[in-house]
Design brief:
about 850 residues, alpha+beta, 5 domains, 9-stranded antiparallel β-sheet, 39 strands, about 25% strand
């Protein structure tokens, strides 16, 4: 009976614990992270009776967690991926709402700006239109700032979100380290309390929702957690030690966040976080917000640059050159958040072009003209030749051997750019037929000797720097001021100017006003020659000098010059003398206003001047008012020689020219001397700047002409006697050229990818929208993956009330059956006791 009783007793005990386990499962059906537990029953050791073994019942072995490491890891990974899409989609949708909103987005403001520019172009003199234009321009700048402010709010919000989530990661890793410490009390995972392991897995799942993790479990269930590419990198938890993550601002890339593990201990840089909630926020920041913010800054920079470029090129209502319309605050240069409107006065809006053309009301023809300016690109040289272009004072440049080919008889020394100041270009050791030639791009010959037809044909080409259609003219050849070209002070020969001597106070040593010293021209050592000097070989301050029979000696030349100037006024008379074997020309010491110029007459050459001991120098006082082409010609190259050479030296003080402003400095008159031939005249000096034939424009149905970047288009062909005046539009309302250029900016493809400014913004909005659509699709797909992983985990570790109810009935019946066995054993025992 005892065996029957013990078997029933062991069964009751075993199923009592099985019922308790099922009850525990049912009680924790809604407990987060709970893993279903299952009881394990084992048969007791059988007893040998006779030749057989009889069972001795069952016993409770252990409670098992229904856990699959692979399924749990898959759940964590799918959780990380899903959580990364949620904040990305949320923030991207918010960004789209901001960029596409009519009250915040840029499209509406840009449309208003260009529309008001279009309205102003129709009536550039209207103060109302100018005021509306300024209002809409200010609105555009404010819209840039407002949109940048919204981007900044998103930046701060996402940064705070990342910092908060990182703090939560640090709290979870600290708890996991403490959990590892509790688990270290047992040597195997089977010995650990199920509830403790459930808490570990729950912490890991929460951690995976914030950042993708890698795990490795020890035999006792302790976990190693890593966020690196491998388990050996980026370790956050190892045994009972945890390492915090710190969020730092990047020192290299503005707006970028960096993550460092144990920043105040042994710092370790984390790789980029691409998964989990933090990964989603970082993806939004790095892939959407920062590029959108940079794009907005680039758009603001392009807008300011292009609009200002057009506006500076215009003329305002007061006749002044336009300034910048937009600008940036000093501390936010190049940032949309710092964009502002610079012009506040409506009269300072530059609506007009820098040039205006006026038709002479007496013109016999019906042609009307329109003028525009585009910087012209010329063929040929753009500066002086070689090192001569680098001869800015105090530098002096020399080309010791410039070759002149016999086949063409000249060589180019390059271009003296407009705005070159105080140039001195010297021929050293010139040959008998060598001389300098200075011409404008339109063939106006300024200095040198008249060119023959062959020389004209070779020099007047676009390849040498000439204008297309340039014609040759000697009208201003070797003229003296004021009859020179554009009134410029240009001279070739030997020259001495009034100099200034610095004075100092004898007592205090302080600098005083400099003292003017009379001009004095000193030559090189006089060599003498057996030659004579023909009449009109030289000019002394514009007066032709008489002939001188040879041989030439220093004394004869001195006497010759003093005789030639004997009748000049005493106060301005130039006297010649010999000093240390050199010829010296001097003004009276009291004359501190006039210079000395020993130039070449009609029969003179630089070689003749060399015989007197002087170098031939091309001198230009002040700034050159036009581009000047410089050549050296040689008419005396030996018959059997292939070339000759000459040495050239030069110096200038500066180059500060602006062709456009030079053209605005004086009125230009276009006068038609016939139906097809015209002159361009500077009305201030009456210099003829160009004389050409009107050539039909193959690209236009209407006649046109160009001069130094100015282009005149005529409605019909002009007639003989027609005149058109080009001025600097000094009242600023003569036309709407600048505002039309600003309107045209709306359709110009100035942004990367060949986009307009508006298209570039819309393209950025579309890119953000594409990210939103992709994030929505990814979220839906990852939601399915996560649910599958959750179902797989629930199928193994989850509590099913149906299954638990079935097990409860089954274990209850087993419990009752074992109790019946015990009851039967007791009844049998009572029956035995009642036997007498």
């Amino acid at each position: 009976m005892s065996d029957l009783l013990s078997i029933g007793s062991s069964g009751v005990t075993a199923y009592q614990r099985a019922l308790a386990t099922v009850s525990n499962n049912i009680a924790n059906v809604n407990t987060d992270g709970y893993t279903r537990q299952d009881v394990s029953l084992t048969a007791n050791q059988p007893r040998e009776i006779g030749n057989s073994y009889l069972g001795t019942g069952a016993r409770f072995d252990r409670v098992q967690r229904q856990y699959d490491a692979f399924v749990e890891s898959n759940l964590r990974n799918s959780n990380s991926d899903l959580e990364s899409q949620k904040p990305l989609l949320s923030y991207v949708n918010r960004l789209i709402d901001v960029m596409g909103d009519e009250s915040i987005g840029l499209t509406t403001a840009m449309n208003l700006f260009f529309e008001s520019a279009r309205d102003l172009a129709t009536d550039p003199a209207s103060v109302v239109s100018r005021s509306i234009f300024l209002r809409d321009a200010d609105g555009l700048a404010a819209r840039f700032r407002q949109l940048a402010g919204q981007f900044d709010l998103l930046d701060k919000e996402t940064r705070q979100s990342v910092e908060t989530d990182v703090g939560q990661i640090n709290a979870l890793t600290t708890q996991l380290a403490q959990m590892n410490k509790q688990l270290s009390k047992h040597s195997s995972e089977a010995s650990q309390p199920s509830e403790l392991l459930d808490q570990r897995d729950l912490l890991l799942r929460e951690l995976s929702s914030l950042v993708a993790i890698k795990t490795r479990f020890e035999t006792n269930g302790a976990v190693i957690v890593s966020v690196g590419d491998t388990l050996d990198q980026g370790i956050l938890v190892n045994q009972n030690i945890s390492r915090d993550i710190n969020v730092l601002q990047s020192n290299i890339e503005t707006g970028r966040l960096e993550f460092v593990i144990d920043a105040y201990g042994k710092p370790e840089t984390m790789p980029g976080i691409a998964s989990g909630k933090i990964g989603g926020v970082m993806s939004f920041r790095d892939q959407v917000l920062n590029p959108a913010s940079d794009s907005l800054d680039n758009l603001a920079t392009a807008m300011v640059r292009e609009v200002n470029l057009v506006h500076r090129d215009g003329v305002d209502a007061e006749g002044q050159l336009g300034g910048d319309l937009f600008g940036f605050t000093a501390e936010k240069s190049g940032k949309a958040s710092g964009m502002n409107l610079v012009v506040q006065d409506a009269n300072r809006v530059a609506a007009a072009g820098q040039f205006r053309i006026i038709d002479n009301p007496l013109n016999s023809g019906s042609a009307q003209a329109r003028v525009a300016y585009t910087p012209q690109q010329f063929s040929g040289p753009t500066q002086l030749r070689g090192d001569l272009a680098l001869a800015k004072a105090p530098q002096i440049a020399t080309l010791p051997s410039v070759t002149i080919e016999a086949s063409q008889g000249f060589t180019s020394l390059g271009l003296i750019p407009i705005g070159t100041k105080d140039l001195a270009l010297t021929l050293q050791t010139p040959g008998s037929g060598q001389t300098l030639q200075v011409l404008t791009r339109d063939g106006r010959h300024l200095i040198g000797s008249a060119l023959n037809d062959t020389q004209q044909g070779l020099m007047l080409k676009t390849s040498t720097g000439m204008e297309t259609g340039a014609t040759y003219s000697t009208q201003t050849l070797n003229r003296t001021a004021p009859a020179t070209y554009l009134g410029m002070d240009i001279f070739m020969g030997a020259k001495a100017s009034v100099s200034l001597m610095q004075q100092f106070n004898a007592t205090t040593g302080e600098a005083q006003a400099p003292l003017a010293v009379a001009a004095k021209l000193t030559g090189n050592t006089f060599a003498g020659s057996p030659d004579s000097i023909a009449a009109n070989t030289f000019q002394l301050n514009g007066q032709n000098l008489p002939s001188l029979s040879g041989p030439l000696t220093l004394a004869s030349v001195v006497n010759w010059l003093n005789t030639a100037t004997a009748n000049d006024p005493v106060g301005s008379r130039i006297t010649a003398s010999a000093q240390d074997g050199k010829l010296v020309l001097s003004r009276p010491t009291s004359n501190t206003t006039q210079d000395i110029r020993l130039g070449l007459g009609a029969n003179g050459t630089p070689a003749d001047l060399k015989r007197l001991g002087f170098d031939t120098t091309l001198s230009i006082e002040g700034s050159t008012p036009d581009d000047l082409l410089v050549f050296v010609t040689d008419t005396a190259i030996p018959v059997n020689a292939t070339n000759s050479s000459v040495s050239v030296q030069t110096q200038f003080t500066d180059i500060a020219g602006d062709m456009k402003q030079a053209l605005r400095a004086s009125e230009l008159k276009v006068s038609f001397t016939s139906d097809t031939r015209y002159q361009i005249i500077d009305t201030r000096t009456q210099s003829v700047l160009a004389e050409r034939n009107l050539v039909p424009d193959p690209l236009s149905a209407t006649p046109s002409l160009s001069y130094r970047g100015l282009k005149l288009e005529f409605s019909t062909a002009p007639k003989k006697g027609d005149e058109f005046t080009i001025d600097n539009n000094r009242d600023g309302i003569g036309n709407n050229e600048t505002m039309l250029a600003l309107v045209a900016l709306e359709s110009e493809r100035i942004m990367p990818g060949g986009l307009t400014i508006t298209e570039a913004y819309i393209e950025r909005v579309n890119q953000v929208g594409n990210v939103a659509r992709q994030a929505a699709i990814s979220e839906q797909a990852l939601e399915v993956v996560y649910k599958q992983a959750q179902e797989a985990r629930d199928g193994i570790s989850g509590v099913s009330l149906d299954e638990e109810a079935s097990a409860l009935v089954r274990f209850q019946q087993a419990y009752q059956a074992n109790a019946k066995v015990m009851q039967t054993a007791m009844a049998l025992f009572d029956s035995i006791l009642q036997i007498r």
